[in-house]
Amino acid sequence: MSAMQAGDIPKGAELLRLEGVGVRFGGLKAVDALGFGVDAGQVVGLIGPNGAGKTTAFNLITGVYKPTEGRIRFAGQDITGWAPHRIARAGIFRTFQTIRLFQGQSVLNNVLAGMHLKTRQQWWQGLLATPAQRREERELREQVMALLERLRLDKLAQEDVASLPYGVQRRVELARALVAGPRLLILDEPAAGLNDQESAELNRTILQVREQGISVLLVEHDMNVVMNVTDQIVCINFGRKIAEGTPEHIRNHPDVIEAYLGKDDDEEEAAA
Q1: Which of 6, 107, 130, 219 is spaced 20 to 30 A from 13 at the CA atom?
Q2: What is the pLDDT of residues 231-247, one digit of tens each?
Q3: Which sequence spans correspond to the domains of the chain?
Q4: Across the beta sheet with 92-94, what order do the strands follow?
């Protein structure tokens, strides 16, 4: 299977579903009865003010936290409470708010690190450099170079990631997640720190990923990115969903506007 192909869920069929998911930290309910879905080949944005619970929701989906209530289903399986490595093997991969590349290593080596779940050979075969190990390493490098070419990173394959502009490093991190062959790619604020040109490049990359049939769940504060690449948007505040719909629906939703901008004094007096 190509590194940028999705799994065996037909396009348009539901891939991910959160059903009344919640988690408590002591007396704080960080996510409360959250429910939404992501279809195969769809880009869904998860938005909300700072502290709304977006990253916590990501951590629940990827197994970093275990829900205290509700269920999470992925590709027809109940994955509630699964360990992160098991969820990754099922086809859910993510990037993080802060770049987590191996500094001092090349672009190629950083992206190759994302292939570890595809490696069939044992560690001792690598030490002995067996023919099977060398053949597999050659195949993996070919797959990575093909992906780098699609993402216009192939000419930078041997460059140290530390020497690259911030926006390019973001794309390298995205390539590392894609090379593992995800069915669902979770992006946590991928446009953070990008300039306008880099954000436009990110938009193109996300749309390219969707064209390959890979689903994307996106947390992002840059609403130009969100509105230009998403099919559906879910807005949460204080851990609860307050709106869900198309970008145009969300753009004009009064609860979303209030969550981001708040009510002014005149509105509060009129409501009193």
Answers
A1: 219
A2: 999 999 999 999 999 99
A3: 14-91+181-271
A4: 92-94, 184-188, 215-219, 43-47, 232-237, 240-245
